[in-house]
Design a protein that fits this description.
Structural class: mainly alpha
Order of helices and strands: HHHHHHHHHHHH
Number of strands: 0
Strand content: under 5%
Distance between the termini: 23 Å
Oligomer: single chain
């Protein structure tokens, strides 16, 4: 894919909130016009490269422009985030034995539920305080009859696990995972916490990166 086509693809997915902040935010009608203009796309790309996406839009030896975004379309990122979130909450998911919560977890998480139960992927060993925290957070989410609350909890943790790993191992993906969602949903890296072993995150990253999107 050419650099022009890649930039068009990337900008079509970037959440509008990343194009300026506060009083400097680009008006929706101007943003739409910029995305449909070759010059406008170049300017938007330069602003992102200079600010919120330096790794994503930097030239990559041996790879094309914006390679991380092209390797990781939105659907693939969302699958990885959900699996990381479910795995991060594995200690709490494995400890949940009540019939209705277990049924809801199985239905809502599908294959991610089986991943959370697989001790060969991660043994789920955490300190007692963290284990109690995970149990309390999952229990509170499951008390809401809307599964979206529980899924949002897992996805938020999954995004944190991915970002903290990717900022060291795949910086372009770290940038891209932020740009796909509104700026307000992301906390500064300094405030994020993660507890999955890096090798476990890398294993899932490699698995999803090689997996066909239709699978």
């Amino acid at each position: 894919m050419s650099g022009t086509a890649a930039l068009r693809t990337i900008l079509s997915e970037v959440d509008p909130s990343w194009h300026g902040d506060g009083p400097d935010r680009i008006a929706p009608e101007l943003l739409a016009a910029a995305r449909n203009s070759a010059l406008g796309r170049r300017l938007l790309g330069r602003w992102l490269a200079a600010g919120d996406a330096p790794a994503l839009l930097a030239p990559q030896p041996g790879e094309g422009f914006g390679a991380a975004a092209l390797r990781w379309p939105r659907a693939r990122v969302e699958r990885l985030v959900r699996d990381l979130g479910a795995l991060a909450y594995a200690p709490a998911i494995r400890a949940e034995v009540r019939r209705d919560p277990v049924r809801r977890l199985k239905q809502a998480l599908d294959n991610a539920y089986l991943l959370a139960l697989d001790s060969l992927v991660w043994d789920g060993k955490v300190q007692a305080q963290l284990g109690a925290q995970l149990n309390a957070e999952l229990d509170a989410a499951l008390r809401d009859p809307d599964d979206r609350t529980m899924l949002d909890l897992l996805d938020r943790r999954g995004r944190a696990e991915l970002r903290l790993w990717a900022e060291r191992r795949d910086p372009g993906l770290a940038d891209w995972s932020r740009l796909l969602l509104p700026r307000a949903l992301h906390d500064p890296s300094s405030t994020l916490v993660a507890h999955l072993p890096p090798e476990t995150v890398e294993r899932l990253h490699s698995h999803h990166g090689a997996r066909p999107l239709a699978a």
